[in-house]
Amino acid sequence: MKLGINLLCLGGHIDESHRPQLERIAEIGYDHVEVPVMRGTPDHYAWLGETLAGLGLGRAQTLIVPDPDANPLSEDAAVRSRGRAHLDWIQDCAEALGSKTVGGPFHAPMAYFTGAGPSEAEIARGVEAHRAMAERAERHSYVLALEHLNRFETYFLNTMAQARSYADAVNHPAFGIMYDTFHANIEEHDQEDAIRHLGDRMHVLHASENDRGIPGRGQIDFATVFRAAKEIGYDGPVVLEAFGAGVPELAAATRVWRPLFPDFETLFRESHDFLCRSWEDA
Q: Distance between CA 149 and CA 118 in Å, rounded?
């Protein structure tokens, strides 16, 4: 298991001002960080990749489709073309950063709904776009981890039954799923069964508490989650994902309106120790 931390707890765009927190993350013993890639240029992410490498931190990234006008699932060819261009930009930044995994809900715009579940045509357009991404990722030695979200954030992928079926349709070794305990806590009847069903398609495991605060303080049964992950032979990235109310763009997207951890030191240290101990005990 490689323990990472999603840097959305710090902000939506990581720059030099975040160096003290990055240094502390490295000191505590995290193996890598998951960088939010929401804006900026490949040159910025090349600089950030060098900075993180200098701290001994591996690199991954997380991202979204931010705009319905650049939706890779759209039936409108012009909108779909802008969506594919956004996915290309994602991979430009990933390669500049030196990412080993590219994760997040890069399938449909967040909080965008059609009034129904995904259509067969939308699934087919998504499969085409994500297979093209996977082919490029394989050439550059990284993998994709598409994230399911709960029904209040997307209509496209909510359950592991949907996610496994979609990954099988893409059918590429560089393409898999980011399993998130927060979203699964809402959508699955049993997280253990959900993880078994996803099986070898799980490329990243997001450890996120039911309130998106510090793991171990809430209702998620991480012991069971980690046992199930070990049962399927998973030994990939386990990534702490916790959100705070201090980042306006993130609070708006995730509906976080109150502090969910007292300070970064408590979040970093307590989460690291709990997740390492829970994985070892599982």
A: 13
CA–CA gap between residue 151 and residue 111 (Å, rounded) = 9
For residue 246, the model assigns a pLDDT of 60
Mean pLDDT computed over 272-281: 98
- For residue 229, the surrounding DSSP H or E stretch is helix 222-231
Q: Which residues are catalytic?
A: 147, 241
Please name the helix (run of DSSP H) or strand (run of DSSP E) that holds residue 37, with its range, or none.
none
What's the pTM value of the predicted model, to 2 decimals?
A: 0.96
Q: Which two tokens stand for residue 65?
A: 């489709």
Interval 255-277 mean pLDDT: 94
Q: Give one word for 191, left, alpha or beta, with left for phi > 0 and alpha for psi -120 to 50.
A: alpha
Q: What is the distance between the alpha carbons of residues 244 and 247, in angstroms, rounded to a whole number?
A: 7
Q: Report the share of the chain in percent with pLDDT over 70.
A: 98
* pLDDT value for 122: 98
User: Can you tell me the distance from the alpha carbon of 241 to that of 8, in angstroms, rounded to the nearest whole number?
Assistant: 8
Domain extent listing, the chain: 2-281
Please say whether the beta carbons of 105 and 154 come within 8 A. yes
CATH number of the domain located at residue range(s) 2-281 in this protein: 3.20.20.150
